[in-house]
Amino acid sequence: MVTILEVDQNKKKFVSVRWKLISTYLLLILITLIVINLVICKTVFNIYIEQEKNNSFSKANIISNRVRHQLSNDRMDEKWVQVSIDDYSKEINSRIIIVDNSNIVQLDSHNSFLGEKFYHDEIKAALRGENSSGIYNFKQSGRVMYIAVPVILNDEVVGATFLSRSIDHIYYEVRHIWRKLELISVVSMAITAIVVFFLAGVIFRPLNDLKYTINKVTQGNFKEKVHVYSNDEFKEVAEAFNMMISKLEEVDNQRKDFVANVSHELRTPLTSIKILSESLINQDTFDQDIYKEFLIDIDSEVDRLNNIISDLLVLVNLDKEKLVLDKKITYINYLLEKIIFRMKVIAKQKDIDLNLKLNEKIQIKIDEDKIQQAIINIIDNAIKYTDIKGTIEVELYKKDKYAIIKISDNGSGIPEESLEHIFERFYRVDKARSRNTGGTGLGLSIAWEIIAYHGGIIDVESQLGIGTDFYIKLPLKN
Ligand SMILES: Nc1ncnc2c1ncn2[C@@H]1O[C@H](COP(=O)(O)OP(=O)(O)OP(=O)(O)O)[C@@H](O)[C@H]1O
Ligand SMILES: [Mg+2]
Predict the structure, then answer these.
(1) What's the pLDDT at 182?
(2) What pLDDT is attached to residue 3?
(3) How many Cα neighbours within 13 Å face the side chain of 151?
(4) Which range of residues forms the domain containing residue 335?
(5) Pocket probe mutation, ligand 1, options 378, 385, 468, max atoms within 8 Å of Cβ
(6) Which label site among 20, 166, 172, 314 has the fewest CB atoms less than 10 Å from its CB?
(7) What sections of the protein cross the membrane (predicted)?
Protein backbone atom coordinates (compact mmCIF):
# COMPACT_ATOMS: atom_id res chain seq x y z
CA MET A 1 0.00 0.00 0.00
CA VAL A 2 2.80 2.32 1.01
CA THR A 3 4.66 1.52 -2.20
CA ILE A 4 1.68 2.35 -4.41
CA LEU A 5 1.43 5.66 -2.58
CA GLU A 6 5.11 6.32 -3.23
CA VAL A 7 4.70 5.46 -6.91
CA ASP A 8 1.78 7.92 -7.07
CA GLN A 9 3.93 10.62 -5.54
CA ASN A 10 6.60 9.87 -8.13
CA LYS A 11 4.02 10.43 -10.82
CA LYS A 12 3.17 13.83 -9.35
CA LYS A 13 6.85 14.71 -9.15
CA PHE A 14 7.35 13.67 -12.79
CA VAL A 15 4.63 15.99 -14.06
CA SER A 16 5.86 18.84 -11.94
CA VAL A 17 9.41 18.49 -13.29
CA ARG A 18 8.00 18.90 -16.79
CA TRP A 19 6.11 22.03 -15.82
CA LYS A 20 9.00 23.38 -13.85
CA LEU A 21 11.15 23.05 -16.95
CA ILE A 22 8.58 24.81 -19.11
CA SER A 23 8.04 27.67 -16.66
CA THR A 24 11.80 28.16 -16.18
CA TYR A 25 12.29 28.36 -19.95
CA LEU A 26 9.36 30.74 -20.35
CA LEU A 27 10.58 32.98 -17.55
CA LEU A 28 14.06 33.17 -19.05
CA ILE A 29 12.68 33.90 -22.52
CA LEU A 30 10.27 36.49 -21.12
CA ILE A 31 13.05 38.38 -19.36
CA THR A 32 15.27 38.23 -22.45
CA LEU A 33 12.48 39.39 -24.76
CA ILE A 34 11.52 42.27 -22.49
CA VAL A 35 15.13 43.46 -22.39
CA ILE A 36 15.56 43.08 -26.19
CA ASN A 37 12.24 44.84 -26.89
CA LEU A 38 13.11 47.71 -24.57
CA VAL A 39 16.51 48.16 -26.23
CA ILE A 40 14.95 48.06 -29.72
CA CYS A 41 12.23 50.60 -28.86
CA LYS A 42 14.64 52.92 -27.10
CA THR A 43 17.03 52.84 -30.08
CA VAL A 44 14.24 53.47 -32.60
CA PHE A 45 12.91 56.32 -30.45
CA ASN A 46 16.35 57.93 -30.26
CA ILE A 47 16.82 57.65 -34.03
CA TYR A 48 13.39 59.27 -34.69
CA ILE A 49 14.08 62.09 -32.22
CA GLU A 50 17.52 62.72 -33.68
CA GLN A 51 16.06 62.83 -37.20
CA GLU A 52 13.30 65.18 -36.06
CA LYS A 53 15.81 67.46 -34.37
CA ASN A 54 18.17 67.64 -37.37
CA ASN A 55 15.21 68.25 -39.65
CA SER A 56 13.93 71.07 -37.48
CA PHE A 57 17.39 72.63 -37.16
CA SER A 58 17.82 72.79 -40.92
CA LYS A 59 14.32 74.29 -41.34
CA ALA A 60 14.98 76.85 -38.63
CA ASN A 61 18.27 77.74 -40.30
CA ILE A 62 16.48 78.26 -43.62
CA ILE A 63 14.07 80.68 -41.86
CA SER A 64 16.94 82.45 -40.10
CA ASN A 65 18.67 82.97 -43.44
CA ARG A 66 15.49 84.29 -45.06
CA VAL A 67 14.71 86.86 -42.40
CA ARG A 68 18.14 88.01 -41.17
CA HIS A 69 18.18 91.25 -43.22
CA GLN A 70 14.61 92.16 -42.31
CA LEU A 71 15.26 91.39 -38.62
CA SER A 72 18.42 93.52 -38.43
CA ASN A 73 16.72 96.42 -40.30
CA ASP A 74 13.55 96.26 -38.24
CA ARG A 75 11.44 95.36 -41.29
CA MET A 76 9.81 92.22 -40.02
CA ASP A 77 6.37 93.70 -40.57
CA GLU A 78 6.82 93.47 -44.34
CA LYS A 79 3.89 91.59 -45.81
CA TRP A 80 5.83 88.95 -47.75
CA VAL A 81 7.75 88.04 -44.61
CA GLN A 82 4.51 87.49 -42.69
CA VAL A 83 2.93 85.49 -45.48
CA SER A 84 5.89 83.31 -46.26
CA ILE A 85 6.49 82.46 -42.59
CA ASP A 86 2.79 81.63 -42.10
CA ASP A 87 2.85 79.39 -45.18
CA TYR A 88 6.04 77.76 -44.11
CA SER A 89 4.67 77.19 -40.60
CA LYS A 90 1.72 75.30 -42.09
CA GLU A 91 3.96 73.42 -44.46
CA ILE A 92 6.29 72.12 -41.76
CA ASN A 93 3.48 71.85 -39.24
CA SER A 94 5.33 73.89 -36.60
CA ARG A 95 4.87 77.11 -34.76
CA ILE A 96 7.55 79.61 -35.74
CA ILE A 97 8.58 82.48 -33.47
CA ILE A 98 11.33 84.94 -34.34
CA VAL A 99 12.80 87.18 -31.64
CA ASP A 100 15.34 89.97 -31.91
CA ASN A 101 18.44 90.09 -29.73
CA SER A 102 16.43 91.82 -26.95
CA ASN A 103 14.12 88.76 -26.71
CA ILE A 104 11.19 90.70 -28.21
CA VAL A 105 8.98 88.64 -30.47
CA GLN A 106 9.13 90.12 -33.98
CA LEU A 107 7.13 87.41 -35.65
CA ASP A 108 4.83 84.62 -34.40
CA SER A 109 3.03 82.29 -36.78
CA HIS A 110 0.25 82.05 -34.14
CA ASN A 111 0.34 85.85 -33.65
CA SER A 112 -0.25 85.65 -29.89
CA PHE A 113 3.22 86.67 -28.56
CA LEU A 114 3.94 89.48 -31.03
CA GLY A 115 5.77 92.41 -29.38
CA GLU A 116 6.13 90.54 -26.07
CA LYS A 117 9.34 89.50 -24.42
CA PHE A 118 9.89 85.79 -24.91
CA TYR A 119 12.29 83.92 -22.69
CA HIS A 120 13.16 80.28 -23.02
CA ASP A 121 16.27 78.22 -22.35
CA GLU A 122 16.52 77.33 -26.02
CA ILE A 123 16.22 81.03 -27.06
CA LYS A 124 18.80 82.10 -24.51
CA ALA A 125 21.23 79.56 -25.98
CA ALA A 126 20.41 80.65 -29.55
CA LEU A 127 21.08 84.32 -28.70
CA ARG A 128 24.47 83.16 -27.42
CA GLY A 129 25.04 81.75 -30.92
CA GLU A 130 24.26 78.04 -30.19
CA ASN A 131 21.75 75.65 -31.67
CA SER A 132 19.57 74.28 -28.87
CA SER A 133 16.68 71.84 -28.40
CA GLY A 134 14.44 70.34 -25.70
CA ILE A 135 11.48 67.99 -25.30
CA TYR A 136 8.52 68.93 -23.12
CA ASN A 137 5.31 67.21 -22.12
CA PHE A 138 2.23 69.40 -21.76
CA LYS A 139 -1.11 68.23 -20.53
CA GLN A 140 -3.04 69.97 -23.31
CA SER A 141 -0.76 69.86 -26.31
CA GLY A 142 1.04 66.59 -25.52
CA ARG A 143 4.73 66.06 -26.24
CA VAL A 144 6.49 68.89 -28.11
CA MET A 145 10.00 69.56 -29.27
CA TYR A 146 11.45 73.09 -28.91
CA ILE A 147 14.40 74.09 -31.02
CA ALA A 148 16.08 77.43 -31.47
CA VAL A 149 18.87 78.61 -33.78
CA PRO A 150 20.59 82.01 -33.94
CA VAL A 151 19.88 84.51 -36.75
CA ILE A 152 23.29 85.72 -37.83
CA LEU A 153 24.16 88.68 -40.02
CA ASN A 154 27.78 89.72 -40.63
CA ASP A 155 28.96 87.39 -37.87
CA GLU A 156 26.65 89.03 -35.39
CA VAL A 157 23.67 87.42 -33.65
CA VAL A 158 20.73 89.66 -34.49
CA GLY A 159 18.01 87.38 -33.11
CA ALA A 160 16.79 83.79 -32.88
CA THR A 161 14.38 81.51 -34.71
CA PHE A 162 12.31 79.30 -32.46
CA LEU A 163 10.33 76.26 -33.65
CA SER A 164 7.84 74.32 -31.59
CA ARG A 165 6.56 71.09 -33.03
CA SER A 166 4.46 68.21 -31.76
CA ILE A 167 6.31 64.87 -31.60
CA ASP A 168 3.35 62.73 -30.45
CA HIS A 169 3.56 60.85 -33.75
CA ILE A 170 7.02 59.53 -32.74
CA TYR A 171 5.62 58.13 -29.45
CA TYR A 172 2.73 56.66 -31.37
CA GLU A 173 5.10 55.04 -33.86
CA VAL A 174 7.32 53.57 -31.12
CA ARG A 175 4.27 52.29 -29.24
CA HIS A 176 3.14 50.61 -32.44
CA ILE A 177 6.55 48.88 -32.80
CA TRP A 178 6.38 47.81 -29.12
CA ARG A 179 2.97 46.18 -29.73
CA LYS A 180 4.32 44.27 -32.72
CA LEU A 181 7.28 43.07 -30.69
CA GLU A 182 4.87 42.05 -27.93
CA LEU A 183 2.93 39.93 -30.39
CA ILE A 184 6.11 38.32 -31.71
CA SER A 185 7.19 37.61 -28.11
CA VAL A 186 3.89 35.95 -27.18
CA VAL A 187 4.01 33.77 -30.32
CA SER A 188 7.63 32.74 -29.73
CA MET A 189 6.86 31.95 -26.07
CA ALA A 190 3.93 29.79 -27.09
CA ILE A 191 6.14 27.94 -29.61
CA THR A 192 8.84 27.49 -26.93
CA ALA A 193 6.29 26.13 -24.45
CA ILE A 194 5.05 23.56 -26.98
CA VAL A 195 8.59 22.52 -28.01
CA VAL A 196 9.76 22.22 -24.38
CA PHE A 197 6.61 20.26 -23.48
CA PHE A 198 7.35 17.63 -26.12
CA LEU A 199 11.10 17.72 -25.50
CA ALA A 200 10.55 17.19 -21.77
CA GLY A 201 8.35 14.23 -22.68
CA VAL A 202 11.23 12.71 -24.65
CA ILE A 203 13.83 13.53 -21.98
CA PHE A 204 11.78 12.09 -19.14
CA ARG A 205 10.52 9.01 -21.00
CA PRO A 206 13.13 6.81 -19.22
CA LEU A 207 11.53 7.87 -15.93
CA ASN A 208 8.24 6.48 -17.18
CA ASP A 209 9.96 3.18 -17.95
CA LEU A 210 11.48 3.26 -14.47
CA LYS A 211 8.08 3.88 -12.90
CA TYR A 212 6.58 1.01 -14.90
CA THR A 213 9.33 -1.34 -13.75
CA ILE A 214 9.04 -0.21 -10.12
CA ASN A 215 5.34 -1.09 -10.27
CA LYS A 216 6.18 -4.53 -11.64
CA VAL A 217 8.86 -5.11 -9.01
CA THR A 218 6.42 -3.96 -6.32
CA GLN A 219 4.12 -6.75 -7.48
CA GLY A 220 7.00 -9.21 -6.99
CA ASN A 221 8.15 -9.51 -10.60
CA PHE A 222 11.94 -9.38 -10.30
CA LYS A 223 12.46 -10.49 -13.92
CA GLU A 224 11.45 -7.03 -15.18
CA LYS A 225 14.36 -4.74 -16.11
CA VAL A 226 14.58 -1.05 -17.04
CA HIS A 227 15.74 -0.46 -20.63
CA VAL A 228 17.35 2.92 -21.33
CA TYR A 229 18.91 3.41 -24.74
CA SER A 230 20.32 6.90 -24.18
CA ASN A 231 23.86 7.31 -22.90
CA ASP A 232 23.34 9.69 -20.00
CA GLU A 233 22.56 9.91 -16.31
CA PHE A 234 19.29 8.05 -16.85
CA LYS A 235 21.24 5.08 -18.15
CA GLU A 236 23.36 5.11 -14.98
CA VAL A 237 20.23 5.26 -12.82
CA ALA A 238 18.67 2.42 -14.85
CA GLU A 239 21.80 0.28 -14.46
CA ALA A 240 21.92 0.93 -10.71
CA PHE A 241 18.22 0.11 -10.49
CA ASN A 242 18.64 -3.12 -12.49
CA MET A 243 21.48 -4.13 -10.20
CA MET A 244 19.22 -3.44 -7.22
CA ILE A 245 16.49 -5.64 -8.73
CA SER A 246 19.00 -8.46 -9.27
CA LYS A 247 20.11 -8.15 -5.66
CA LEU A 248 16.47 -8.16 -4.49
CA GLU A 249 15.79 -11.23 -6.61
CA GLU A 250 18.81 -12.96 -5.10
CA VAL A 251 17.69 -12.11 -1.57
CA ASP A 252 14.15 -13.26 -2.39
CA ASN A 253 15.44 -16.55 -3.77
CA GLN A 254 17.64 -17.03 -0.71
CA ARG A 255 14.63 -16.44 1.49
CA LYS A 256 12.54 -18.97 -0.44
CA ASP A 257 15.38 -21.52 -0.37
CA PHE A 258 15.85 -20.94 3.33
CA VAL A 259 12.17 -21.51 4.12
CA ALA A 260 12.10 -24.60 1.87
CA ASN A 261 15.26 -25.99 3.50
CA VAL A 262 14.04 -25.32 7.02
CA SER A 263 10.71 -27.03 6.33
CA HIS A 264 12.50 -29.98 4.73
CA GLU A 265 14.99 -30.35 7.56
CA LEU A 266 12.29 -30.18 10.23
CA ARG A 267 10.05 -32.57 8.36
CA THR A 268 12.63 -35.42 8.12
CA PRO A 269 13.01 -36.06 11.88
CA LEU A 270 9.27 -35.45 12.38
CA THR A 271 8.45 -38.10 9.75
CA SER A 272 10.78 -40.57 11.48
CA ILE A 273 9.15 -39.85 14.86
CA LYS A 274 5.70 -40.31 13.31
CA ILE A 275 6.63 -43.67 11.71
CA LEU A 276 8.32 -44.94 14.86
CA SER A 277 5.45 -43.95 17.14
CA GLU A 278 2.79 -45.35 14.75
CA SER A 279 4.60 -48.69 14.59
CA LEU A 280 4.64 -48.78 18.40
CA ILE A 281 0.91 -47.98 18.55
CA ASN A 282 0.14 -50.69 16.02
CA GLN A 283 2.14 -53.36 17.92
CA ASP A 284 -0.15 -56.15 19.05
CA THR A 285 2.29 -57.57 21.53
CA PHE A 286 4.36 -55.72 24.07
CA ASP A 287 8.01 -56.39 23.33
CA GLN A 288 10.03 -54.34 25.77
CA ASP A 289 13.25 -54.49 23.67
CA ILE A 290 11.51 -53.18 20.56
CA TYR A 291 9.84 -50.45 22.58
CA LYS A 292 13.17 -49.39 24.03
CA GLU A 293 14.92 -49.46 20.65
CA PHE A 294 12.17 -47.35 19.03
CA LEU A 295 12.09 -44.90 21.90
CA ILE A 296 15.88 -44.46 21.68
CA ASP A 297 15.42 -43.67 17.94
CA ILE A 298 12.62 -41.22 18.75
CA ASP A 299 14.83 -39.61 21.39
CA SER A 300 17.69 -39.12 18.93
CA GLU A 301 15.32 -37.60 16.35
CA VAL A 302 14.06 -35.17 19.02
CA ASP A 303 17.71 -34.26 19.74
CA ARG A 304 18.20 -33.64 16.04
CA LEU A 305 15.13 -31.39 15.92
CA ASN A 306 16.46 -29.55 18.93
CA ASN A 307 19.87 -29.06 17.31
CA ILE A 308 18.35 -27.70 14.10
CA ILE A 309 16.12 -25.29 15.99
CA SER A 310 18.91 -24.02 18.22
CA ASP A 311 21.18 -23.55 15.17
CA LEU A 312 18.38 -21.64 13.44
CA LEU A 313 17.93 -19.45 16.50
CA VAL A 314 21.65 -18.68 16.53
CA LEU A 315 21.44 -17.70 12.83
CA VAL A 316 18.36 -15.54 13.37
CA ASN A 317 20.10 -13.74 16.21
CA LEU A 318 23.18 -13.20 14.07
CA ASP A 319 20.96 -11.81 11.33
CA LYS A 320 19.48 -9.13 13.52
CA GLU A 321 20.62 -5.85 12.13
CA LYS A 322 22.02 -4.43 15.33
CA LEU A 323 23.83 -7.41 16.70
CA VAL A 324 25.71 -6.18 19.74
CA LEU A 325 28.92 -8.07 20.30
CA ASP A 326 30.08 -8.31 23.87
CA LYS A 327 33.74 -7.68 23.08
CA LYS A 328 36.51 -8.08 25.65
CA ILE A 329 40.28 -8.35 25.41
CA THR A 330 40.85 -12.13 25.41
CA TYR A 331 43.86 -14.42 25.24
CA ILE A 332 43.13 -16.69 22.28
CA ASN A 333 45.61 -19.21 23.75
CA TYR A 334 43.54 -19.82 26.85
CA LEU A 335 40.33 -19.88 24.84
CA LEU A 336 41.78 -22.57 22.53
CA GLU A 337 43.06 -24.63 25.47
CA LYS A 338 39.56 -24.56 26.99
CA ILE A 339 37.92 -25.60 23.69
CA ILE A 340 40.41 -28.39 22.98
CA PHE A 341 39.92 -29.76 26.50
CA ARG A 342 36.18 -30.07 25.81
CA MET A 343 36.49 -31.38 22.27
CA LYS A 344 39.06 -34.04 23.19
CA VAL A 345 36.24 -35.96 24.89
CA ILE A 346 34.31 -36.14 21.61
CA ALA A 347 37.46 -36.86 19.56
CA LYS A 348 38.33 -39.71 21.89
CA GLN A 349 35.09 -41.51 20.98
CA LYS A 350 36.50 -41.89 17.44
CA ASP A 351 40.02 -42.45 18.69
CA ILE A 352 41.08 -39.22 16.98
CA ASP A 353 44.24 -37.44 18.04
CA LEU A 354 43.38 -33.77 18.69
CA ASN A 355 46.51 -31.63 19.19
CA LEU A 356 46.98 -27.97 20.00
CA LYS A 357 50.11 -26.07 18.96
CA LEU A 358 50.47 -22.59 20.42
CA ASN A 359 53.32 -20.62 18.84
CA GLU A 360 52.79 -17.35 20.67
CA LYS A 361 50.49 -15.61 23.08
CA ILE A 362 47.92 -13.54 21.26
CA GLN A 363 45.48 -11.11 22.83
CA ILE A 364 42.59 -9.58 20.86
CA LYS A 365 39.24 -7.98 21.51
CA ILE A 366 36.46 -10.48 20.76
CA ASP A 367 33.07 -11.72 21.88
CA GLU A 368 34.46 -14.84 23.55
CA ASP A 369 31.24 -16.90 23.53
CA LYS A 370 30.59 -16.30 19.84
CA ILE A 371 34.18 -16.94 18.72
CA GLN A 372 34.18 -20.10 20.83
CA GLN A 373 31.08 -21.27 19.00
CA ALA A 374 32.69 -20.61 15.59
CA ILE A 375 35.86 -22.54 16.50
CA ILE A 376 33.86 -25.41 17.97
CA ASN A 377 31.75 -25.67 14.77
CA ILE A 378 34.90 -26.08 12.68
CA ILE A 379 36.63 -28.55 15.05
CA ASP A 380 33.34 -30.45 15.30
CA ASN A 381 33.35 -30.80 11.49
CA ALA A 382 36.96 -31.96 11.53
CA ILE A 383 36.02 -34.70 14.01
CA LYS A 384 32.81 -35.60 12.11
CA TYR A 385 34.44 -35.84 8.69
CA THR A 386 37.64 -37.64 9.81
CA ASP A 387 37.76 -41.42 10.07
CA ILE A 388 38.57 -43.34 13.22
CA LYS A 389 42.18 -42.96 14.36
CA GLY A 390 42.68 -39.75 12.39
CA THR A 391 44.62 -36.70 13.48
CA ILE A 392 43.50 -33.10 13.95
CA GLU A 393 45.97 -30.27 14.51
CA VAL A 394 44.93 -26.87 15.87
CA GLU A 395 47.58 -24.16 15.59
CA LEU A 396 47.69 -20.48 16.59
CA TYR A 397 50.03 -17.91 15.04
CA LYS A 398 50.26 -14.32 13.77
CA LYS A 399 50.56 -13.42 10.10
CA ASP A 400 50.29 -9.95 8.56
CA LYS A 401 47.63 -8.15 10.57
CA TYR A 402 45.80 -11.32 11.60
CA ALA A 403 45.72 -13.84 14.40
CA ILE A 404 45.28 -17.14 12.59
CA ILE A 405 43.75 -20.30 14.00
CA LYS A 406 44.51 -23.17 11.64
CA ILE A 407 42.47 -26.39 11.99
CA SER A 408 43.85 -29.27 9.89
CA ASP A 409 42.47 -32.78 9.62
CA ASN A 410 43.36 -35.82 7.58
CA GLY A 411 39.73 -36.69 6.92
CA SER A 412 37.58 -37.13 3.84
CA GLY A 413 38.40 -33.72 2.28
CA ILE A 414 36.01 -31.53 0.28
CA PRO A 415 35.64 -31.73 -3.51
CA GLU A 416 36.86 -28.56 -5.24
CA GLU A 417 33.48 -27.69 -6.74
CA SER A 418 31.91 -27.72 -3.24
CA LEU A 419 34.49 -25.43 -1.62
CA GLU A 420 32.69 -22.24 -2.67
CA HIS A 421 29.36 -23.50 -1.28
CA ILE A 422 30.23 -24.95 2.11
CA PHE A 423 29.52 -21.65 3.92
CA GLU A 424 26.00 -21.45 2.48
CA ARG A 425 23.10 -22.31 4.74
CA PHE A 426 22.03 -25.98 4.62
CA TYR A 427 24.78 -26.87 2.15
CA ARG A 428 26.23 -30.34 2.70
CA VAL A 429 28.64 -32.12 0.40
CA ASP A 430 27.25 -35.58 0.97
CA LYS A 431 23.70 -35.22 2.21
CA ALA A 432 23.25 -38.88 3.14
CA ARG A 433 26.51 -38.97 5.07
CA SER A 434 25.88 -35.69 6.83
CA ARG A 435 22.47 -36.87 7.88
CA ASN A 436 24.02 -39.99 9.42
CA THR A 437 26.43 -37.73 11.30
CA GLY A 438 23.54 -35.50 12.33
CA GLY A 439 24.61 -32.48 10.23
CA THR A 440 22.18 -29.86 8.95
CA GLY A 441 24.64 -27.69 7.00
CA LEU A 442 24.33 -24.67 9.29
CA GLY A 443 27.54 -24.98 11.33
CA LEU A 444 29.87 -23.28 8.81
CA SER A 445 27.48 -20.48 7.90
CA ILE A 446 27.15 -19.65 11.61
CA ALA A 447 30.95 -19.66 11.97
CA TRP A 448 31.33 -17.48 8.85
CA GLU A 449 28.91 -14.85 10.12
CA ILE A 450 30.49 -14.71 13.59
CA ILE A 451 33.98 -14.23 12.14
CA ALA A 452 32.69 -11.67 9.61
CA TYR A 453 31.08 -9.68 12.47
CA HIS A 454 34.57 -9.50 13.99
CA GLY A 455 36.01 -8.14 10.73
CA GLY A 456 37.71 -11.46 9.93
CA ILE A 457 37.43 -14.20 7.30
CA ILE A 458 37.61 -17.97 7.01
CA ASP A 459 39.77 -19.58 4.31
CA VAL A 460 39.71 -23.23 3.40
CA GLU A 461 42.06 -25.55 1.50
CA SER A 462 41.18 -29.16 0.93
CA GLN A 463 42.21 -32.26 -0.99
CA LEU A 464 39.76 -35.08 -1.47
CA GLY A 465 40.78 -38.15 0.56
CA ILE A 466 43.76 -36.35 2.08
CA GLY A 467 42.37 -33.73 4.42
CA THR A 468 41.20 -30.19 4.99
CA ASP A 469 42.76 -27.01 6.44
CA PHE A 470 40.50 -24.25 7.78
CA TYR A 471 42.06 -20.84 8.59
CA ILE A 472 40.14 -18.57 10.92
CA LYS A 473 41.67 -15.09 10.43
CA LEU A 474 40.86 -12.47 13.06
CA PRO A 475 42.23 -8.92 12.79
CA LEU A 476 44.72 -8.16 15.58
CA LYS A 477 43.38 -4.62 15.87
CA ASN A 478 39.68 -3.74 15.49
N1 LIG B 1 36.65 -30.77 7.88
C2 LIG B 1 35.81 -31.15 6.90
N3 LIG B 1 36.12 -32.22 6.12
C4 LIG B 1 35.28 -32.60 5.14
N5 LIG B 1 34.12 -32.00 4.84
C6 LIG B 1 33.75 -30.95 5.58
C7 LIG B 1 34.58 -30.45 6.64
N8 LIG B 1 33.99 -29.37 7.19
C9 LIG B 1 32.82 -29.18 6.50
N10 LIG B 1 32.68 -30.12 5.53
C11 LIG B 1 31.57 -30.22 4.56
O12 LIG B 1 30.90 -29.01 4.56
C13 LIG B 1 29.50 -29.18 4.81
C14 LIG B 1 28.95 -27.99 5.58
O15 LIG B 1 29.44 -27.99 6.88
P16 LIG B 1 28.55 -27.44 8.05
O17 LIG B 1 29.32 -27.48 9.29
O18 LIG B 1 28.00 -26.13 7.61
O19 LIG B 1 27.34 -28.44 8.08
P20 LIG B 1 27.22 -29.83 8.77
O21 LIG B 1 28.46 -30.16 9.49
O22 LIG B 1 26.76 -30.78 7.72
O23 LIG B 1 26.00 -29.61 9.75
P24 LIG B 1 25.99 -28.81 11.15
O25 LIG B 1 25.00 -27.76 10.90
O26 LIG B 1 25.55 -29.77 12.16
O27 LIG B 1 27.37 -28.32 11.36
C28 LIG B 1 29.43 -30.46 5.57
O29 LIG B 1 28.18 -31.09 5.38
C30 LIG B 1 30.55 -31.27 4.96
O31 LIG B 1 30.10 -31.90 3.81
MG1 LIG C 1 29.22 -28.80 10.94
Answers:
(1) 95
(2) 47
(3) 28
(4) 324-475
(5) 385
(6) 172
(7) 25-49, 183-204
